[in-house]
Design a protein that fits this description.
By secondary structure, the protein is of the alpha/beta class. It folds into 2 domains: 295 residues, 3-Layer(bba) Sandwich (FAD/NAD(P)-binding domain), CATH 3.50.50; 88 residues, D-Amino Acid Oxidase, subunit A, domain 2 (D-Amino Acid Oxidase, Chain A, domain 2). Helix content is 38%, strand content 28%. The chain is built from 13 helices and 18 strands. The strands form 3 sheets. Strands 5, 6, 10, 11, 12, 13, 14, 15 and 18 form a 9-stranded mixed β-sheet that branches. Helix 1 packs parallel to helix 5, helix 1 runs parallel beside helix 9 and helix 9 packs antiparallel against helix 10. The protein is globular. The two termini are 38 Å apart.
Length: 392
């Protein structure tokens, strides 16, 4: 019996951990390395929005049943342009034909447009699966952990984040653009929205997402100029809630701040190559986009989905292991370029006060509201990725 192919994954965040599980599921022997230990990997206080593409991947890897109880579904998504005073609502019916039928009926995809999950419980599930999987060796928080490229691995996976030392060591450059914005996240108790409804508010200073966490709790993802976010981050709880109430439509009534607001800069980044030699760049080591539309982690997990399919082909002998990195890079370019371009266009179109753009924005949202096929097309692009819609 031939020896299993060997992979080394550097980085054990949500994307790196899922990549290790995907490679092991494909029959590879995997070592996953991270300078942070399990407790540090759990500490991040934020929530993620998951689309149908991420759910499909979790199902293929046998992880959905464990993750499902952690997921808060939303069945309605309201897109509201506060500058143009126009809105459109996406509902379950918008998951129907023609695009969702290519993946199965909406009922088979689950009765939700998407899901929200907090980092800690999700990461706990992934770490537990890493620890018990017989094909995975974990080296988390260990001093003297092996460097990238040490050992006899057939594949190296760099999942070490946007400031990837591995990408820099490989000499892979970046195309990048700073939005001169930061993104502030906070968990709040709030009235004015149902527990199964998510909001994307398009404001002149930047997009603003309100994501349901259940039981009257919501995560706000507030994009604004960097100085404004630093000021908000430093406010006392009562002052922050007052500022939040002033930024939201009148229907929202913030009642309590449940964690410390945290701000981080946002930028568009794309590595000039997604592979070099036997190494592939996965997740934010290879790309970053603005968090508008909740595309970030889902785009990273579509990296994992492509890697999983190619790893299965290599295990079956239909793809030489040394050709996998180039095949991965080739397959990822269309999705990366389209998604980064779409999120960048949304930010540039809506994060401004240009009066000449207001009629165009209003017309676009009115068309979405009135044309079911256009809503289905837009939602399919958001939930499955633009390539799935355009390429079939």
């Amino acid at each position: 019996m031939p020896q299993p192919l060997q992979a080394q994954v550097m980085g054990a965040g949500p994307t790196g951990a899922l990549a290790a599980l995907a490679l092991a599921d494909a029959g590879w022997q995997v070592t996953i390395v991270d300078p942070l230990g399990p407790s540090a990997l759990l500490e991040r206080t934020r929530a993620y929005a998951f689309t149908q593409s991420s759910r499909k991947l979790l199902e293929r890897l046998g992880l959905w049943q464990a993750c499902d109880p952690l997921m808060v579904p939303f069945r309605r998504l309201e897109l509201l342009d506060l500058g143009a005073r126009a809105s459109v609502a996406f509902a379950l019916a918008d998951l129907a034909a023609p695009f969702a039928q290519r993946q199965g009926a909406a009922q088979r995809q689950g009765a939700a447009l998407g899901w929200i999950a907090q980092h800690r419980p999700l990461m706990a599930v992934l770490l537990e699966r890493l620890q018990v999987h017989p094909a995975i060796t974990t080296q988390l928080g260990e001093s003297g952990a092996p460097a990238m490229g040490s050992g006899p691995a057939d594949l190296m996976v760099a999942a070490d984040g946007p400031h990837s030392p591995i990408r820099e060591a490989l000499g892979i450059g970046l195309w990048q653009w700073s939005y001169r914005q930061s993104c502030l996240t906070a968990t709040v108790a709030m009235r004015g929205s149902d527990d199964d409804q998510a909001w994307e508010l398009l404001r002149p200073e930047g997009p603003f997402a309100v994501l349901p966490l259940g039981e009257g709790q919501f995560q706000v993802v507030w994009s604004a100029p960097q100085g404004r976010c630093r000021q908000l981050e430093s406010l006392a709880d009562a002052a922050f809630l007052d500022a939040l109430a002033g930024a939201l439509p009148d229907r929202f009534q913030p009642d309590g701040l449940l964690d410390q607001p945290r701000a981080f800069p946002v930028a568009l980044q794309l590595a000039r190559r997604q592979h070099r030699g036997s190494c592939v760049l996965l997740g934010e080591s290879g790309h970053r986009c603005h968090p508008v539309g909740g595309q970030g982690l889902n785009l990273c997990w579509r990296d994992v989905a492509v890697l999983h399919r190619l790893a299965q082909r290599a295990t079956a002998g239909r793809l030489a292991a040394e050709r996998l990195p180039a095949a991965y890079g080739l397959r990822r370019w269309p999705d990366l370029l389209l998604t980064l371009a779409a999120t960048d266009l949304l930010v540039r179109l809506f994060s401004n006060r240009a009066p000449l753009l207001l009629p165009l924005r209003r017309l676009g949202l009115v068309a979405l509201a009135r044309l079911p096929w256009l809503r289905r097309f837009s939602l399919a692009a958001m939930t499955h990725g633009p390539c799935q819609v355009l390429g079939g």
